């Protein structure tokens, strides 16, 4: 029986994505080459070029596909604690060497859709959590939930992008505390 080409292709594709992330963390974006990714993934570079025209789109796909892997959905508890945990997780992603280097390059290359795609799952969780809190009376009924999520995420990504200060759990906890004061008002 002949090997299943679709299964082999998926296995190769995932190996390429994983290799790209491993290498960008090791050597950085500037020194990352398609040849090195191909060697690490055990494929020919023509296989990579069949799916991606360059390292930018390759890393874009790697982040989008593999960043959500292993992301646990935690049970909700105290509203403040839940929001603090989400922002701390966001900071954890932002300060990862592979994320930081590549995202900065891609943002400067006008690939802001990468940041948007990475933020979407976190936004959804935070919107769900705030909507639940609103129904339970933990925050005011007139709060615009999507705008409230922007109040929470905006300072974190602003600080990351402009490097205006350290990204720490203390910073994100302060953002949550200040935002909740306004939402509970």
TrEMBL record:
Keywords: DNA-binding, Transcription, Transcription regulation. Gene3D superfamilies: Homeodomain-like, Tetracycline Repressor, domain 2. Pfam families: TetR_C_11, TetR_N. Residues 33-52 bind DNA. It comes from the Bacteria. The keyword Flavoprotein does not apply. The keyword Lipid metabolism does not apply. GO terms for molecular function: DNA-binding transcription factor activity; transcription cis-regulatory region binding. Residues 10-70 form the HTH tetR-type domain. PANTHER family: HTH-TYPE TRANSCRIPTIONAL REGULATOR RUTR, TETR-FAMILY TRANSCRIPTIONAL REGULATOR. This is Transcriptional regulator, TetR family. It comes from Saccharothrix espanaensis (strain ATCC 51144 / DSM 44229 / JCM 9112 / NBRC 15066 / NRRL 15764).
């Amino acid at each position: 029986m002949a090997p299943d080409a679709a299964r082999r292709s998926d296995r190769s594709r995932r190996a390429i994505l994983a290799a790209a992330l491993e290498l960008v963390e090791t050597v950085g974006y500037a020194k990352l080459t398609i040849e090195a990714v191909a060697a690490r993934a055990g494929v020919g570079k023509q296989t990579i070029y069949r799916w991606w025209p360059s390292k930018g789109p390759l890393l874009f796909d790697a982040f989008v596909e593999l960043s959500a892997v292993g992301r646990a959905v935690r049970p909700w508890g105290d509203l403040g604690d839940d929001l603090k945990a989400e922002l701390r997780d966001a900071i954890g992603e932002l300060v990862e060497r592979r994320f930081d280097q590549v995202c900065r390059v891609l943002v400067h290359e006008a690939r802001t859709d990468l940041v948007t795609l990475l933020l979407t799952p976190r936004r959804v969780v935070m919107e769900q959590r705030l909507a639940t809190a609103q129904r339970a009376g933990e925050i005011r009924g007139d709060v615009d939930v999507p705008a409230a999520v922007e109040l929470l995420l905006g300072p974190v990504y602003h600080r990351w992008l402009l490097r205006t200060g350290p990204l720490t759990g203390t910073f994100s906890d302060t953002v949550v505390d200040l935002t909740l004061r306004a939402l509970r008002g």
